[in-house]
Amino acid sequence: MKDYEVNVSLVMESNFDLTVEADSEDEAQDLVKDQVWDDQLTQEIRCHREIISEDYYAEQVMEDFDIYDEDDNWLTTMYEQSDKETALEEYNDNLIGDDVVGDYAERS
């Protein structure tokens, strides 16, 4: 299995009515606005919350792998690879001729 990072984007809406005592509409709105931002209405907001839009984006997690030869000598680092097998294969495939120098790979 491979590792994936998934970005989740949710747009939510919460719509409800409150009754407050105030001298004007502006004051009533300011009182409720202060309650929202002071987290005094968290339960009410959660009870009426609804997801109105959602989006998910997955991207495979890529890592760097060090390549070693059969004598445990470090050869190079392969950057942004999906797994150690792919890193080793790509390293050996990029060599001139039919040589296979890389013996194994480890995470950097």
* Low-pLDDT windows of residues: none
Across the major sheet, the strand order is 4-3-5
Say what oligomer this is.
single chain
Question: Strand tally, please?
Answer: 5
- Class derived from helix and strand content: alpha+beta
Describe the structure.
The protein is α+β, with helices and mostly antiparallel strands and 108 residues long. It folds into two domains: 56 residues, no CATH class; 45 residues. 27% of the residues lie in helices and 38% in strands. The chain has a three-stranded antiparallel beta sheet, with helices on one face. The protein has a two-stranded antiparallel sheet with strand order 1-2. The protein is rod-shaped. 8% of the residues are buried.
Layout of strands and helices, then pairs:
Blueprint: E1 4-14, H1 25-37, H2 42-47, E2 49-60, E3 63-68, E4 74-81, H3 84-93, E5 104-107
Antiparallel strand pairs: 1-2, 3-4, 3-5
Compact summary:
With 108 residues, the chain is of the alpha+beta class. It is 27% helix and 38% strand.
